[in-house]
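Hi F.,

I've been meaning to write this up properly since the lab meeting, where we talked about keeping a consistent format for the predictions we share between groups. The idea is simple: the sequence comes first, exactly as it goes in, then the structure tokens exactly as they come out, then a line or two of notes. No screenshots and no reformatting. I'm using this chain as the first example so we have something concrete to point to.
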Amino acid sequence: MGLTAEQTESLETGRRVIAREAEALIQLKDTLDGGFTQAVDLLLAARGRVIVSGMGKSGHVARKIAATLASTGTPAHFVHPAEASHGDLGMMAQGDVTLVLSNSGETPELAHLIAYTRRFRIPMIGVAGRAGSTLLRQSDVAILLPPAPEACDNGIVPTTSTTMTLALGDALAIALMERRRFTPENFRLFHPGGKLGARLSRVEDLMHTGDALPLISPDTPMSEALLVISQKGFGVAGVVEGARLVGVITDGDLRRHMQGLLDMNASQVMTRNPLTTTPDTLAEEALALMNERKVTTLFVRAPDGLPDGSGDLRGILHIHDCLRAGLG
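Output, unedited:
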């Protein structure tokens, strides 16, 4: 089905807006200079937090930048400039660094915040689109956005300018991440929820320990072993000698020994050298192993290299634990 004239016009508008913003980002990339590296150095040296501020659309961008910084290892929060004038200036302290955003560089609501940073010698990084503006003149580090036109034809709607500012914030955050050698494990500490947190979870975060473990000794009669399997609810039992796992009893083992089962003990029914995992294994890898080997549980043993070399039993992981965490 062909497009109507109005639909064709809307499509062309969308493409024009995206093209203009893409061109602006290329300009921003090409104009980054020593001011950017000075900003990164200043943020790295901060003993306190990064205070990000802006008004209007710049304020919305500032909130996102603060959140990105905070989630990637740089303590940060947003301070609304108008609220700052009514008490929130007290949220700023020596040792902090401020990152202030304003396309014009002359936003009236920023005046008290700027003055406060100057009075108490709080370093300030200013980001603006006008050279010589009050914000950039007062800043310790000034980052000037390139003179790219806004995406709307009348040039009044903050579009291209906010896109560049947002990208600049991402660039600062990633540069800081790399300078701090920020790892996926660090990232998970700030993202314990959601799909990402689940993918970065380790077995030790999900496994069951202590009295929850279905454990029996090799000489346990199978009548008692069946009670343990039923009571603990994992569908298996671990056979241990001291703290060492020597075998497991699964549903398959029970079926294979159905005839005369109650006349046997655990050592006669168990599968020796069972499949196990370690506490520091990614839960996603453990789930893949369970799916591959068509099992629903894995006992968890300490990594190799313990002083006694025994691989002490640490816990048990059920496939449902992984699914509840958002894996699979």
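Notes:
The mean pLDDT is 88.
The first helix runs from residue 5 to 31.

If this format works for you, I'll send the rest the same way.

G.
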